[in-house]
Amino acid sequence: MNRSEAIKFVHDTYVTTKKFPSFKAGDTVTVSYKIIEGNKERIQQFQGVVLQRAGSGATETFTIRKISGNIGVERIFPFSSPLIEDIKVNKRGVVRRARIFYMRDLKGKKAKIKEKRF
């Protein structure tokens, strides 16, 4: 198996087998992530605002930020990870940028994102 066949195999098995909903920066999502501790497995939910989507294809990632006990927590998830069980979009946000890193400096009501009406 040469390099291009290997890349195609990984792309076909991991990227296209799972269908996730479309979302963008500003949306509030819940990611169900499989945690493996020793020989035990459990599903952990991480809910927050999407700050960015980066990359393309098998290397695509997205960054989620949430506030936990007055401390901002950010986590980067790769789309092609086999540990992601599900992604659920809770709210659609209205933002004008693809990368909303300015949210890191905002606190309280200023950190609120307007919700898109359907």
Describe the fold and architecture.
- With 118 residues, the chain is mainly beta.
- The protein has 1 helix and 5 strands.
- The radius of gyration is 16 Å and the shape is globular.
Order of helices and strands: HEEEEE
Query: How does the major sheet shape up?
Result: 5 strands, antiparallel
Mean pLDDT: 88
Rg value: 16 Å
Q: How many β-strands, per DSSP? A: 5
Look at the helices and sheets and give the structural class. mainly beta
How many DSSP H or I helices? 1
Estimate the helix proportion, in percent.
10-25%
Spans of at least 5 consecutive residues with low confidence: none
Form type: globular
* Neighbour order of strands in the largest sheet: 4-3-2-1-5
Task: Please state roughly what percent of the residues sit in beta strands, choosing from under 5%, 5-15%, 15-25%, 25-35%, 35-45% or over 45%.
Answer: 35-45%
Whole-Å distance between the termini?
48 Å
Question: Which helices and strands appear, and what pairs or packs with what?
Answer:
Layout: H1 3-15, E1 28-37, E2 40-54, E3 61-68, E4 71-78, E5 84-91
What's this, in brief?
The protein is mostly beta strands and 118 residues long.
Which terms summarize this structure?
118 residues; mainly beta; globular
